Amino acid sequence: MQLLKNTFPNFFLGFILFMIPFVSYSQITPETKTDSTGAPIPKAIKVVDIIQKVEEANKEIKLSYSKIDVGNRVSRIDSLFPDYAKFIEAQLKRKDHFVSANLNRYKVNNLIKKWNRYYDHLSGWESIINEQEERNIIILKSLNFQEKTWQLTYENAEKEKVPLEVLTRVRVVWNDYKRINKQVNKENNDYLILESKINKQKILVNNTIDELNSLKDSEVYNLFYLRNEPLWKSSFKSPDKDEGEKDEVNSLSENITGIFYYIKTSEHSIYLYILLVVFVVVLIHFIKKTFEKYPFNEPDGDLQNAKDIILNHSVMSMIFISLIIAKWFFGNTPVLFGNILVFLILIASVPLVEPYMYKRFKKIIYFVILFYLLDTVKTYLWFTSSQYRLYLLFEALLVLGVLISFTRPYLKTRKMKIGNFGLLLIRLTPVIYGLLLVSIVSNILGYTNLTDLTLILSIHSGVFTVIFYGILMIAGGVSTGIIHWNFNMKLTFDQERKFGLELKLMQIIRVLAFVLWFLFFLGMIDLLAPLTQFFTDVFSEPYRFGSITFTIGDVFSFILILAVSFLSTSIISYLFDSGEVSIKFFRLPKGIPAAISLVIRYFIIAFGIILALSSLGIDLSKFNLMAGALGLGIGFGLQTVVSNFVSGLILVFERPINVGDTVEVDNLLGIVKRIGVRSSSIITFEGAEVVVPNNNLIANDLINWTLSDNIKREEILIRASYSSDPNQILKILIDTALSNEDALKYPAPQALFSEFGESSLNFKLRFWVQSEVGLQAKSDISIGVYNAFAKCGIEIPFPQQDVYIKDRSGFKNKNSDAV
């Protein structure tokens, strides 16, 4: 099985290269002729093949009939559209009455959301019909080709004077193709008519949305427009309700009906949402098990809080994130549905946020929920203008009173040492004070547009702060858990690096959360759409440079595509090549992650460059001359570069060496750190990093000590005196090797008597170890042998030489006498 894993990638690559010529030849075979557009030209079927082709054609005709069957969704749209058109017409009349009631800006926004929901519903229908039309167009191309083919076949069969029975069968097939072709054309025409009707309704709905937006931007809804009399001059009597006000009262029941209809018509979206929820549940459960399995003792308090969120509140975290996804996933739902979701999100955030708030401010989150309910309920109740203003005044005074009770005295409270969330609320307090005072004063004076905005800001800023703090805590817990799992999957890791990565990712999450909160804040005060439109206009302004026309948006797209491409390649390289991320659960053979990484990175870069150039409107065909010059340069001057490049591809796909292997090439011994497309890096055991051209690794003899496995044999030479017992020495050597924890038990150590030396008995001890601990194991076992020999009194001899000095004293005396 392992052999199959190792050889399959090489076989697959070789098979593709081997088959390319044959595939190319099959695509340009002379039997297949094409016209100027590249479409195949039909021709008559040979007489000898007619019977076989008739049988195949009958099967294909049956399959075509099943393909063009009108789907249940299209039939349903066709039956529902007349009633929906009447519904839109009725809503237009209601809208006119609704607007005539001179409602506040908030309710106009709700009305716009409702019409956006109608637009999305019609767009969904149009998309379904478009899909069916495109499907039929593809089928029509094949049917037209087959119809012409069988027409030519019939005419050719008449000329060849084939038997009448065969000619009749050919005629039947031809007629079947004509009939089904006609049916598909008719269906497509019906689809086009239905799509045109839907599009007409979309235009009507879109015009209504534009009209409401224009109304919202009119002077009547200006912040400083005196919309009502001062409160002391207002009348508090309840006049008879007109149609517009009745619509306002009935909005609650209409919303409930709309929710059931939305659920009924969003079956596929609900299934996808369930899959997302399952993913969230599995992810958080996995992170919880990680924290339970591996101890987490980081010194940072925020990281500990992030861990506690997942470990102690995993179920509530799942519910909270599921509700957040629902709020984001189900767009343009009835207003009541969105309000219920926000209310449930706030309830779910209580156990996630409250434990990390200062004790004095813990109950403020319950008041935030209460204020949200008070602010929401006015959407579904009918008030006269004066009653509505009294309700707003009561709401503002209540919020102001609660805020004062929690923060007084403010200067003393501001100096308290509290957590990040409490500190954020304290710093926002003066802003909320100012907004509430403006709301109260403007309400009394009659500037109710300003009252609505300031009160919404005061209440909803707190709501979104609580929600985004909950998101921040869970996102921090998930990210910290993933990093914690990844590092603990390794045998050893750098604790400081892990801690730094956790802090850095936590900071990034905080910035993203703040950006999202700010975008929601802009949307809340109706500034997001104008800003978006402003930047859209700026980025779409055309400029001309020579023969190239571009916009600022094109330049930003160019830079963004390149940045995303290179960032993606960096992430992929980090995941597969760096060794920092554990991917053991993929169970990929050694070297395969590097090959996958290389292919994906090159594909992303190439595709990203093409997209980036296309975004600038550059015609890529103009690079033909440059490509020719580059090819000429490669042929003459870049032979070595191309050779190294191709060698790099061979190294990646054939995998004679992998990152982390211990290799020996050209008297260079070290560990492979990186395999690039032009050169590779090898770190020697002395610490030097040597850059080796890939061609050298392919063309020269290469020794890979760890290609198939990372075990190697070590050998120790031992000498003993002739007075020693060889049998005892062999036993000592085996026992010493087996007692070392680094020496492998299989293959078993081997002790050998090698020869009778000049002054010693010579032995060899061979044992197998993991490559990375070979030197240490050899040293430890050598010391163990020495200690065992000393304990048993075995002498380790060393070369000795006896020097004999002759006594020449008599020779000197004779010389002295002579003298």
TrEMBL record:
Tagged with keyword Membrane: yes
Primary subcellular site in the record, as a coarse category: membrane
Membrane topology according to the record: Multi-pass membrane protein
Domain Mechanosensitive ion channel MscS: 640-706
Family: Belongs to the MscS (TC 1.A.23) family.
Places the protein is found: Cell membrane
This protein's UniProt keywords: Cell membrane, Membrane, Transmembrane, Transmembrane helix
Protein name in UniProt: Mechanosensitive ion channel domain-containing protein
Species of the source: Lutimonas vermicola
Mechanosensitive ion channel MscS C-terminal domain location: 719-796
Pfam family, one: MS_channel_1st
Gene3D superfamilies documented for this protein: 1.10.287.1260, 2.30.30.60, 3.30.70.100
Transmembrane regions: 270-288, 309-330, 336-353, 365-383, 389-411, 423-446, 466-487, 508-535, 555-577, 598-618, 630-653
UniProt keyword Ribonucleoprotein, yes or no: no
InterPro entries for this protein: LSM_dom_sf (IPR010920), MS_channel_1st (IPR049142), MS_channel_C (IPR049278), MscS-like_channel (IPR052702), MscS_beta-dom_sf (IPR023408), MscS_channel_2nd (IPR006685), MscS_channel_C_sf (IPR011066), MscS_channel_TM-2 (IPR011014)
Domain Mechanosensitive ion channel transmembrane helices 2/3: 599-639
